[in-house]
């Protein structure tokens, strides 16, 4: 499944267009490699997403084409959430 579609279906990011924009900005990596919106994801992959002041690392448990709101959170497991601090220059 495409990365942008997975992010929308799993409700990690609410809209597919927004997921595509975040990927194009280089703020998403799959298994440590910078990802495009069209990158394929599968169960077992590890996503790292930079949301503003936060970095979220999640493991993909399973992939499905559609999901109800209750099922969406079962598609992934949050491994860690880190706050990004502004470095002094």
TrEMBL record:
Q: Which InterPro entries match?
A: RqcP, S4_RNA-bd, S4_RNA-bd_sf
Keyword Calcium found: no
Any Pfam family hit: S4
Family, according to the entry, reads as follows:
Belongs to the RqcP family.
Q: What is the role of the protein in this entry?
A: Key component of the ribosome quality control system (RQC), a ribosome-associated complex that mediates the extraction of incompletely synthesized nascent chains from stalled ribosomes and their subsequent degradation. RqcH recruits Ala-charged tRNA, and with RqcP directs the elongation of stalled nascent chains on 50S ribosomal subunits, leading to non-templated C-terminal alanine extensions (Ala tail). The Ala tail promotes nascent chain degradation. RqcP is associated with the translocation-like movement of the peptidyl-tRNA from the A-site into the P-site.
Self-association or partners: how does it assemble?
Associates with stalled 50S ribosomal subunits. Binds to RqcH, 23S rRNA and the P-site tRNA. Does not require RqcH for association with 50S subunits.
Question: Which keywords annotate this record?
Answer: Protein biosynthesis, RNA-binding, rRNA-binding, Stress response, tRNA-binding
Name of the protein described by the UniProt record: RQC P-site tRNA stabilizing factor
> What sequence ranges are listed for the domain RNA-binding S4?
1-61
